[in-house]
Design brief:
Distance between the termini: 58 Å
CATH architecture of one domain: 2-Layer Sandwich
Mean pLDDT: 84
CATH topology of one domain: Pantoate--beta-alanine Ligase, Chain: A,domain 2
CATH class of one domain: Alpha Beta
Number of strands: 4
Order of helices and strands: HHEEEE
Shape: rod-shaped
Structural class: alpha+beta
Number of helices: 2
Largest sheet: 4 strands, antiparallel
Helix content: 40-55%
């Protein structure tokens, strides 16, 4: 039987330059993967917020255009100011996009009439509000005096997990 002689070199781990280079490459790739993941999650959150804001903008615009068309039609048929405003508001709230999937209203409309000036405000609850003002000219037609989207600025810092729900 041949006996094997134990040497001190059998238990040592030898790290050569190639192994060190491979280890550094793996660590760098892992760091880049984490950075890519956090960047993609942040980009996705930003894109979702932008899409929601665009949906709300289109909802406000559609409701306001429906409001103006109905108000013009009601005033042309001789309806009094309050009746015309009420019917125009009902028409703006009746558009399909004004309700969410559960059927709840996601749009608030406030109106006012002073003399020949009609104003309305459309609010979707996302911090943006469309304000319009219309003036009835001498021919009885409505002319747009103001059509402005305003945004309420939130000064609170957004704190969240960059990695999303990992």
């Amino acid at each position: 039987m041949a006996s094997r002689k134990a040497t001190t070199n059998d238990s040592e781990v030898r790290m050569g330059p190639l192994a060190l280079f491979t280890l550094m490459a793996v660590i760098c790739l892992a760091v880049l993967a984490v950075l890519a993941l956090s960047t993609s999650n942040a980009t996705m959150a930003l894109a979702q917020r932008r899409a929601d804001a665009t949906d709300q903008l289109y909802l406000d615009e559609a409701a306001a255009q429906t409001f103006v068309a109905t108000l013009d039609e009601q005033l042309a048929t001789g309806a009094d100011d309050q009746t015309a405003l009420d019917r125009a508001t009902d028409a703006a709230l009746a558009i399909p996009a004004a309700r969410d999937l559960q059927g709840d209203l996601q749009l608030q409309v406030s109106t006012d009439a002073i003399g020949d000036t009609y104003s309305a405000s459309f609010d979707c609850g996302n911090g943006r509000q469309l304000e319009i003002a219309l003036i009835k000219d001498g021919d009885g037609d409505l002319r747009v005096q103001r059509w402005r989207m305003t945004t309420v600025v939130n000064d609170e810092p957004m704190m969240g997990n960059l990695l999303g729900s990992l």
